[in-house]
Amino acid sequence: MPVDPRPSVGLLGLGIMGSAMAPNLLAAGFDVVGFDIDAARMQAFVQAGGTAAASPRAVAQAADIVISVLPSVQALEAVVLGTDGLLSAGRSGLVLVEASTFALEDKQRVHDAALPRLTVLDCPLSGTGAQAVTRDLLVYASGDAAAIARCAPVFAGFARAHHDLGAFGNGSKMKFVANLLVSIHNVAAAEAMVLGMKAGLDAQDILRVVGDGAGGSRMFSVRGPQMVADRYEPPTMKLSIWQKDMHIIGEFAGSLGCPTPLLDACAPIYDAAVAQGRGGQDTAAVCAVLAGMAQLDRSAPNPDKDPA
């Protein structure tokens, strides 16, 4: 009987992204062991076919390649450098695919502290939780080239493509560029939807017709259905987390002396959404904020829409 050459995979963080990636890795035939501090997430992971680990150390003991998708730098430091972290397992040849969005200097600090016992790759993901469900993610990989090549089959298990961008940190830099556009396009999509609805156009028609032309964008197609339905839960990217990402981009651009006037113009809309108690909702909820600013009553029937 031939030996399966595929590595075992560990997942640290089973939130919106991690929980969506796990079933795809399992469907691709990988053994997946995972850890999260949230017991409910762990239970859902096990029900999906994953193997629960009691700690990051236990993940390192069971897996060859570990992927982390975490909410904070503090969580990253704990799972790598903590008492029960990956390094405490004493494994050689272990690779950590760090897929979260953090400030580059924070990732670099953990990368440097882990050497030479652990190879850390900087591999942010492009895509939403909903896209992760359908394996519609991109991996912006950077760091040790041999380790990236070793991880290629794993990337193929949860993403539609990966890009080796060279030196450690280039993945984060590319993610900052991508997220800048996502931030702007998301608000632009909401602004256009609200303008059309205020003018009496049907929301579904706006999504279908505008999305089919030059005015369409990936964010318009991905977030548009939520804006049409005016429903923003469950989130595929929480507004509160997105605010953190925008802050990171702003600081990065500022360190380079690079102006970001459109990103700056969008920030108050996201701030207003969080101030309205929408921090746990999807980023598409900026549409509700703009609808409120436009005094658009979405509960009322559209008098300009022909009856079915």
Explain the layout of strands and helices:
Layout: E1 9-12, H1 16-27, E2 32-35, H2 39-47, E3 51-52, H3 56-62, E4 65-68, H4 73-81, E5 95-98, H5 104-114, E6 119-122, E7 125-126, H6 129-133, E8 138-141, H7 145-158, E9 161-164, H8 170-198, H9 203-210, H10 218-229, H11 239-255, H12 261-275, H13 286-293
Parallel strand pairs: 1-2, 1-4, 2-3, 4-5, 5-6, 8-9
Antiparallel strand pairs: 7-8
Helix pairs in contact: 4-5, 8-10, 8-11, 8-12, 8-13, 11-12, 12-13
Task: Give an account of the 3D structure.
This protein starts with 8 loop residues before the first strand and ends in a 15-residue tail after the last helix. It is globular, with a radius of gyration of 21 Å. It has 13 helices and 9 strands. Helix 8 (170-198) crosses helix 10 (218-229), helix 8 packs parallel to helix 13 and helix 12 packs across helix 13 (286-293). Helix 1 links the parallel strand 1 (9-12) and strand 2 (32-35). It is of the alpha/beta class. The longest helix is centred in the middle third of the chain and has 29 residues, at 170-198. It has a 6-stranded parallel sheet, with helices on both faces. The chain folds into 2 domains: 9-167, NAD(P)-binding Rossmann-like Domain (Rossmann fold, 3-Layer(aba) Sandwich), CATH 3.40.50.720; 172-293, N-(1-d-carboxylethyl)-l-norvaline Dehydrogenase, domain 2. The chain has helices spanning 16-27, 39-47, 56-62, 73-81, 104-114, 129-133, 145-158, 170-198, 203-210, 218-229, 239-255, 261-275, 286-293; strands at residues 9-12, 32-35, 51-52, 65-68, 95-98, 119-122, 125-126, 138-141, 161-164.
